[in-house]
Amino acid sequence: MKRSPVRDIRREDVSRPSGILEAYRKARGFSARGVAEAADILEEMFRDDQATNFLSFPADVVATGTRGLLSELIERELVDVVLTTCGTLDHDLARSYKPYLAGDWLLDDRELARQGLYRLGNILIPQDHYGGIIEGRMRRLLDRLWREGTRRISTRELAWAIGEDLGPGRGRGSLLRAAYEHQVPVYVPGPLDGAVGSQLWLFWQDHRDLTLDLFRDEQELSDLVFGARRTRALILGGGISKHHTIWWNQFRGGLDSAVYLTTAVEWDGSLSGARLREAVSWGKVRPRAPQVTVEGDVTTLLPVLLGGVWDRLGSHRRQSMAWKRDVAPRAGRPG
User: Fold this and answer.
1) Which of 54, 152, 230, 303 is the most buried (most CB within 10 A)?
2) Is 333 within the bounds of a domain?
3) For the domain that residue 254 is a member of, what is the CATH number?
4) In this structure, is residue 6 part of a structural domain?
């Protein structure tokens, strides 16, 4: 087997985003090589007009500036399906009304509690920038939907309803607003594990005819998967959003390509720590599919990856989206 030499990175190599990726390829060592491989797989994914592209991520990254990149992936019509956790609805809605603040990992959490501040890693969330906003906005939205006749609602319909309710002004920067405007489905397989989920439960106390229709979500995912010519995925972090992505794709023989960014360890047997090579044994990724797992923080890696790939793509836009080709039933308003 021919071995390529390790080459040094010079200043001129990293003067533009795509150059950084080429420098990583040239450097060959450690995580840099994986980032370069991930960029190649993502470029193919974004250029493939006939693929159904999945994007999955947990909610924590939506509390950071990474939310902007996730929104832009939807706005640029580079992804067709989003799978995430309930906290994404929480953070996206709250941040559309009030800002989150920069903090520090080593702040005194007892003092923060006294000041009415939540800590999410090194992000600070004033209590009145979170719970009260979600409670008030969700109650108004659910009241309106109920008056309009809604008795069953899927998580995809709920995500779009929140995005629609934000409007074009308040929703600027919101990934839920982008999903609503571009008709990209957002599925939340664990919808009760968050503030929005709690508001659904509270509303149900007085409106027992309201049903959260998870089976409709699953049917739409089935239609998307079985109607796809190819499926590809960008998987950020682990948990239920990662698993639901690879779980559904096993039924068609696995993903045709995948990139996974994670900080989780493999040796504890967790789903979050499982590398994509393990998914091959389950039939969730095809044996010969281009795939790579890159160890590192999404908030650090994703800007480098997307910046470089978008630099390569230039003005390229995918000409057709799986959702718009009706591989899944057209969605109406909540019913």
Assistant:
1) 54
2) no
3) 3.40.910.10
4) no
Kind and range of the H or E element at 89?
helix 86-95
Q: Which long-range contacts (CB under 8 A, 24 or more apart) does 180-184 make?
A: 181/75, 182/74, 182/75, 182/77, 183/323, 183/324, 183/331, 184/74, 184/77, 184/79, 184/80, 184/81, 184/82, 184/321, 184/323
Residue of 26, 242, 284, 324 marked catalytic: 284
Residue 165 lies in a domain: yes
Q: Tell me the CB-side half-sphere exposure of residue 145, using CA atoms within 13 A.
A: 29
Q: Which two tokens stand for residue 314?
A: 């230039």
Of the candidates 185, 115, 119, the residue with the CA atom closest to the CA atom of residue 156: 185
List of the chain residues with pLDDT < 70? 1-2, 319-335
Q: Is residue 126 part of a domain?
A: yes
Q: Give the total number of structural domains in the chain.
A: 1
Which range marks the domain in which residue 98 is found?
A: 11-325
Interior CA angle at 195 toward 190 and 199, to 5°? 95
Residue 284 a catalytic site member: yes
Question: What is the CB neighbour count within 10 angstroms for residue 97?
Answer: 15
Q: Which residues pair with 231 in a beta bridge?
A: 52
pLDDT digits (tens, 9 = 90+) for 29-75: 788 899 999 999 999 999 999 999 999 999 999 999 999 999 999 99
Please name which of 154, 178, 185 lies closest in space to residue 326, comparing C-alpha atoms: 185
